[in-house]
Amino acid sequence: MFSALISLLLRLVLAVATAILVLGLMALALATLLGVGLWSLIRGRKPAVDLSGFARARAFRAGQGFGPGPARRTPPADVVDIEARVVGEGAEAGGRPALPPQSP
Predict the structure, then answer these.
(1) Mean per-residue pLDDT for 39-63?
(2) How far is CA 68 from the centre of its chain?
(3) Which of 4, 8, 9, 94 falls 20 to 30 Å from 19 in CA-CA distance?
(4) CB 36 within 8 Å of CB 47
(5) What stretches pass through the bilayer (predicted)?
(6) How many degrees, rounded to 5, is the angle at CA 70 between CA 65 and CA 75?
(7) How many domains does the chain have?
(8) Chain segment 35-50, per-residue pLDDT in tens
(9) Contacts (Cβ under 8 Å, ≥6 apart) of 57
(10) Those residues with Cβ within 8 angstroms of residue 36's Cβ, 6 or more apart along the chain or in another chain
């Protein structure tokens, strides 16, 4: 009887503490949201909200993984090659003279 009463009181205290914690976190989130909204209004800019994590999670749940795999890779776009040029025999990159050949 006594242990059941203590167990009930402990559960009640933990339930109240959990409710207070959740409500406190929600109030903190709301205050942060309002603060960021007011700050963006004062600065005259739209708040930057990055929701790309939700899109990645949705794609992951849909079975696409974290990106295109080897079998699902898109074909490469047009490749632009660089134009090669010949550097003089006595100069390296940067315009410094080449080191003399070393004999073994």
Answers:
(1) 81
(2) 18
(3) 4
(4) yes
(5) 25-42
(6) 110
(7) 1
(8) 988 998 899 888 777 7
(9) none
(10) 47
